[in-house]
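Hi V.,

Quick status before I head out on leave. The structure for the redesign project is tokenized and pasted below; the design run finished overnight.
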């Protein structure tokens, strides 16, 4: 019920993600509480640029994913349950996670690196405790959720960065083992519930780097989600990918062109990521164009006034607390 695959798992078998098993008619989440990655990251690394900018976030994952993206950069943990049959991870309880966040004075917890939908039982238990402790919850996700999961999840969710990997269903089928429509549905539901949402598109040379795809994505964001929704255009690196090691890195020209398509479609905040020196990681006032948040790697320097432009007063769509 967690994800849009709706796997029907036969007795003694596991689902597509390799983390759920039918043991004699009872379904088990084998990855519950088994933390495969736990770090304190800048929130900008998620990337979330408009949510608690300049803060750090306790970031965690279990092994497993409901996608099999050829471009995956965390494939050693996202694909390991299916590659090895094992679910590696350190046993940590939800309460221990909260204690780590509190001890380090972290204002948020991010469910990231792999797909939180496949560890949603564990994530939800943490999220409920986080809410009580006034810690925010952020999901960094492919958005391939069931509606049932969305309904369980959204009351505790404060922010999301969702990958929109292409606007062609064929790409999702061929390179991710998923489908486009459930991702679009998740995005619309997030916006309807007022959850702060940013979008990331990894631009992969020859696979999804067509102008039409970028234009369709930008138009969808503007029309269905709102032009205040930040769009992160991210550089692909073959060397760290799972299966696309022979493809070149995304060129600066392509990143620049995509950035331009986003701006021309009317989006207020278009960012390029993973590529120092490429068009922009900075936030400019959408009205007067003044530089309001200067980002250099993960070094953030703010020139806004309580989330408004310090020159003209325009709202910069920042979530500051
Ligand atoms: Zn301004």
């Amino acid at each position: 019920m967690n994800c849009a695959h709706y796997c029907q798992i036969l007795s003694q078998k596991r689902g597509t993600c390799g983390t759920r098993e039918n043991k004699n008619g009872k379904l088990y989440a084998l990855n519950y509480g088994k933390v495969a990655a736990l770090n304190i990251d800048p929130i900008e690394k998620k990337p979330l640029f408009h949510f608690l900018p300049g803060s750090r976030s306790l970031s965690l994952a279990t092994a497993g994913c409901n996608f099999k993206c050829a471009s995956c950069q965390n494939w050693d943990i996202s694909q390991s349950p299916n590659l090895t049959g094992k679910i590696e991870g350190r046993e940590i309880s939800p309460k221990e996670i909260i204690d780590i966040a509190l001890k380090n004075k972290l204002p948020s917890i991010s469910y990231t690196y792999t797909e939180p939908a496949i560890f949603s039982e564990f994530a939800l238990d943490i999220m409920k405790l986080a809410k009580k402790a006034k810690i925010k919850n952020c999901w960094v996700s492919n958005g391939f959720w069931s509606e049932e999961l969305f309904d369980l999840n959204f009351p505790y969710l404060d922010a999301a960065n969702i990958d929109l990997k292409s606007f062609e269903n064929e790409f999702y089928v061929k390179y991710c083992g998923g489908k486009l429509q459930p991702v679009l549905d998740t995005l619309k539901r997030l916006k309807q519930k007022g959850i702060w949402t940013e979008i990331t598109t990894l631009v992969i040379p020859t696979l999804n780097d067509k102008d039409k795809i970028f234009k369709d994505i930008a138009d969808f964001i503007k029309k269905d989600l709102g032009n205040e929704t930040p769009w992160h255009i991210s550089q692909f690196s073959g060397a760290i990918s799972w299966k696309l090691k022979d493809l070149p890195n995304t060129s600066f020209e392509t990143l620049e062109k995509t950035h331009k398509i986003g701006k021309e479609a009317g989006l207020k905040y278009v960012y390029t990521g993973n590529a120092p020196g490429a068009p922009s990681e900075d936030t400019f006032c959408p009205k007067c164009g003044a530089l309001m948040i200067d980002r250099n790697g993960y070094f953030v320097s703010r020139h806004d006034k309580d989330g408004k432009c310090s020159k003209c007063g325009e709202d910069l769509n920042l979530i500051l607390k």
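Above is the designed sequence. Residues 285, 287-288, 290, 309, 311-312, 314 surround zinc ion (CB under 6 Å).

G. will cover questions while I'm gone.

Best,
W.
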